[in-house]
Design goal:
The chain has nine helices and 13 strands. It is of the alpha+beta class. The protein has four domains: about 1-30; about 30-115, Elongation Factor Tu (Ef-tu), domain 3; about 120-225, no CATH class; about 325-450, no CATH class. A seven-stranded mixed beta sheet has the order 1-4-3-2-6-5-13, with no helix packed on it. A six-stranded mixed beta sheet has the order 7-10-9-8-12-11, with no helix packed on it.
């Protein structure tokens, strides 16, 4: 009985050991004993990942890689990777990003799952344009617009509260702050996008596009997830080498441009600018002092200018008043008409040099009288003096009319009487000549008086 019990115990212990060994081997190979769905994704390169590597979501381990199988098909070759989610109640959202990451520079590799992130953009709040939660988000892919996501949340904010770099593109006082999610598998958009609200067949939508309106291709994949290919360390180092080479080339060109002579010229230019600035400051100080010392002279000059302007305005008003006098213009016109008629009659009486000189003298007398009258009217507002001038002009007009009538009578006389009259006219011409000289002197005095004022 004892032997049977010992053999039984040994058998049970061996069975347990075999079971543990089988489980250990399967675990090492990456076989997970889970009823969860196996997920298959395709990579062009897994960068050395092996079966049994962990699967993480947002930094937490939620499963493991079960199988990695290469598929050779020429240029279309790829690696088939299967993994399983071992944690309960974990569901991978559509369009989640799946990538191969590495803990540290030479640490363990793992599969990282990142759910679609929420993006934010700002749109001007204009008129009746409205945005609601769950409204579609569309963008242009291969010259055609597709719905690629949905609006997660909307808020109206004051434009001044949004980032400064975005305020320039929004000219309204308020703006929509729209949080949206892109859920089209395989679609990778730039970090920053612009958008506007539209209506498509009566449906409110938000249309987004890259800031530079670059073309985006429609993703060609059948997986419900977005696959990010890993970058090998060799590729990374190659990029770093190219960046270093570009930087070296840039430094060489900069060194060629910044020669010793150019640097010396720049230094000299800085010195010259400093000297010029100092001289400019000195000049400004002198100008300020000059202005301060010249304030009194400037004020005096301005007062003189104001006084001159006032005097000129007074003279202009006085000339306007005289020109608008209802008596002055008719009187002047009558005198001119009488003088014209007198000259015509004199020409009819005697066509000789003395008669013509007499007419010229009389015309000069009337002209001088008119100029004297005009000067008096421009220099004074004395109504009595104006009245006397007008009275004098009236007397001259009457005298001209009488002379004209007398000449008409003379035209009807015989030759003997005309000879006597000719002698009389000669005497009158001498008198008129003397009177002309007197009026010219008087006119010159009034001209001097007018220049003084």
């Amino acid at each position: 009985m004892k032997l049977k019990s010992s053999s039984f115990k040994v058998g049970i212990l061996t069975l347990v050991a075999l079971t543990v060994l089988i489980f250990t081997i399967l675990w090492v190979k990456g076989r997970a004993f889970s009823s969860a769905e196996r997920i298959e994704v395709h990579f062009r390169d897994v960068n050395g990942m092996r079966a049994g590597s962990g699967v993480q979501m947002m930094g937490l381990r939620v499963g493991q890689v079960e199988e990695i199988i290469p598929v050779i098909d020429g240029e279309k070759s790829y690696v088939k990777l299967k993994f399983v989610i071992t944690e309960p109640n974990i569901k991978i959202p559509t369009a989640s990003t799946i990538s191969i990451q590495q803990s540290g520079l030479i640490g363990e590799q793992f599969l990282e799952i990142t759910p679609p992130k929420t993006r934010t953009l700002y749109i001007p709040a204009v008129g009746n344009q409205l945005a609601y939660k769950n409204d579609p988000v569309q963008t242009k892919l291969d010259d055609k617009y597709y719905d690629v996501g949905y609006i997660k949340n909307t808020n109206i904010v004051v434009t001044k509260a949004i980032p400064l770099e975005l305020q320039k593109s929004i000219q309204t006082t308020h703006a929509y702050k729209i949080d949206y999610v892109v859920n089209l598998p395989g679609l990778i958009l730039p970090e920053f996008m612009k958008g506007k609200l539209i209506q498509d067949n009566g449906v409110n939508k938000m249309r987004i596009a890259p800031l530079d309106d670059a073309a985006i291709s429609y993703p060609q994949q059948t997986s419900p997830y977005t696959i990010l290919e890993p970058m090998r360390i060799s590729d990374f180092m190659d990029l770093q080498y190219k960046a270093a080479a570009s930087l070296t080339e840039t430094n060489l060109k900069v060194n060629e441009l910044l020669s010793d002579k150019l640097i010396a010229d720049l230094k000299q230019s800085v010195v010259n600018i400093n000297d010029l600035t100092a001289k400019a400051a000195t000049t400004v100080e002198k100008a300020e002092k000059l202005i301060e010392t010249s304030n009194k002279d400037l004020d005096k000059m301005m007062k003189m200018a104001d006084s001159f302007t006032n005097d000129f305005n007074k003279i202009t008003k006085l000339a306007t008043d005289i020109g608008g006098d209802p008596k002055f213009k008719p009187t002047l016109f009558e005198a001119t008409e009488a003088l014209t008629k007198l000259t015509n009659n004199l020409n009819k009486v005697l066509d000789n040099t003395d008669a013509k000189q007499l007419g010229a003298d009389l015309n000069a007398i009337v002209t001088n009288i008119n100029e004297i009258s005009t000067s008096v009217n421009m220099m004074t507002k004395d109504e009595k003096l104006k009245y006397k001038v007008f009275e004098t002009v009236d007397h001259v007009n009457k005298a001209m009319v009488d002379i004209s009538k007398a000449l008409e009578v003379v035209n009807s006389l015989d030759d003997c009487k005309k000879a006597d009259l000719t002698k009389t006219l000669t005497d009158v011409a001498e008198t008129a000549s003397n009177l002309r000289k007197f009026t010219e002197k008087l006119n010159k005095r009034f001209l001097l008086f007018r220049l003084m004022f």
